[in-house]
Design a protein that fits this description.
Strand content: 25-35%
Number of strands: 9
Helix content: 25-40%
Largest sheet: 7 strands, antiparallel
Shape: globular
CATH superfamily: Electron Transport, Fmn-binding Protein, Chain A
Structural class: alpha+beta
Radius of gyration: 16 Å
Bound molecules: flavin mononucleotide
Number of domains: 1
Number of helices: 5
CATH topology: Pnp Oxidase, Chain A
Order of helices and strands: HEEEEHEHEEEEHH
Distance between the termini: 10 Å
Strand order of the largest sheet: 2-1-5-8-9-4-3
């Protein structure tokens, strides 16, 4: 079993956990020396204990981020600020498999080694404690090891969607249509195996 997670001061994490029904976040991760980040909205609070926040983060199998979380066992949820619209294009429309997406984005390194993106509304830096396969995606159960609310104005997908330039919106519609087909073809193919803890990255911690 891992060491217990440190207590989190509720006001640090509380504003981030409120209203998780439609967050807009960059989920960043590290596996060894490799870092990456993607956009995600499928994120929910999963703990009633205020000083031990947990989340469920749903990541699609086809994403590079998925493979890095599965091998590294860590991720950070960076909630987007109102002026971070470009990150939707940079991190949500392209894959880290096709090139380093973070080489032109400023970040610091969190407790878990995950990138913490500069200028975010705040972050929750997490390690994976379990996972459930959904066929097309994995629902990672993660516990928060560090949290910080930076402030600003949280960007939601509802607000961001109409602000997207036309060619981004067209590209998104094309991408999501293809991904729906992939999900339809794979979502019944569920692997019931439990998360094999700890991944190499967390040995001895
Ligand atoms: C608004 C928006 C919301 C998204 N939500 C999710 C999500 O909740 N889970 C997920 O796995 N992918 C989600 N994506 C898709 C990934 O961000 C996208 O496929 C990304 O290119 C994957 O990058 P990667 O291959 O480098 O991991 C979303 C994308 C956008 C633009």
């Amino acid at each position: 079993m891992p060491n217990p997670a440190p207590d989190i001061i509720p006001p640090d994490a509380g504003p981030l956990l409120a209203g998780l029904s439609a967050p807009l976040a960059a989920v960043s991760t590290r596996s060894g020396e490799v870092v990456n980040a993607q956009i995600a909205v499928a994120i929910t609070a999963a703990s009633i204990v205020l000083h031990r926040p947990r989340l469920i983060v749903q990541i699609y199998h086809t994403n590079y981020t998925h493979d890095l979380i599965a091998t590294g066992g860590v991720l950070a949820v960076n909630f987007l600020n109102h002026d971070q619209l470009p990150l939707i294009w940079q991190l949500g429309m392209r894959s880290g498999r096709d090139g380093d997406k973070l080489n032109e984005i400023a970040y610091s390194v969190g407790t878990t080694g995950s990138p913490l993106l500069e200028g975010s509304y705040g972050y929750l830096d997490c390690r994976v404690v379990n996972a459930m396969d959904g066929g097309d995606m994995t629902a990672f159960l993660v516990e928060v090891l560090a949290a910080q609310t930076n402030g600003g104005q949280r960007l939601t997908w509802r607000e961001a969607r109409p602000r997207l330039p036309r060619h981004w919106a067209d590209e998104w519609d094309r991408k999501i249509a293809g991904e729906m087909n992939v999900s339809l073809a794979t979502m019944a193919d569920i692997d019931p195996a439990a998360w094999a803890y700890p991944p190499a990255a967390w040995d001895g911690q």
